Amino acid sequence: MEFPKEGEFITIKSYKHDGSLHRTWRDTMVLKTTENALIGCNDHTLVIESDGRRWKTREPALVYFHKHYWFNIVTMIRQKGVSYYCNMASPYLIDEEGAKYIDYDLDVKVFPDGEKRLLDVDEYEEHGKKWDYPDEIDLILKEHIKILVDWINNEKGPFSEGYVDLWYNRYKQLTGKR
Length: 178
Hints:
- The protein is α+β, with helices and mostly antiparallel strands.
- The protein contains 3 helices and 11 strands.
- Strands 1-2-3-6-7-8-10 form a 7-stranded mixed barrel.
- Strand 1 (9-15) and strand 2 form a beta hairpin.
- The mean pLDDT is 96.
């Protein structure tokens, strides 16, 4: 499978532990791919929920996936500042259908003022029982929450100064938007 190229559009699909489709984002523009990572942009992108509901994203958002980390990062570019929504999830893979990962319920939200919140702990516990999450997955996710918080605190990767400007400007160059 070839990596998608800069400027191409891909679909992103999230699944649950039992293999069921959770959510699909159509037409994410690829900004960069490497052997290990993918950076893209969603801007008023169609999202389809597993129950068939459809909606569009409200603002531009950069997406970051990595093949070695159990999280992905959505950087939402809003009038009131940049927010981050970090999904605790399996490392992504790419095939002919697009980028795919398993969503493990837990999320870390970072607000424009830097406040961090761990979200959906109850959903994680409920689904862990329902789908019998292995202890190994639980340990991996807890370790990767620590890694993620270190990235946030030390402004690594998508949390680094200049990341949003660099990649959002690249998106605007590729689309001709101002």
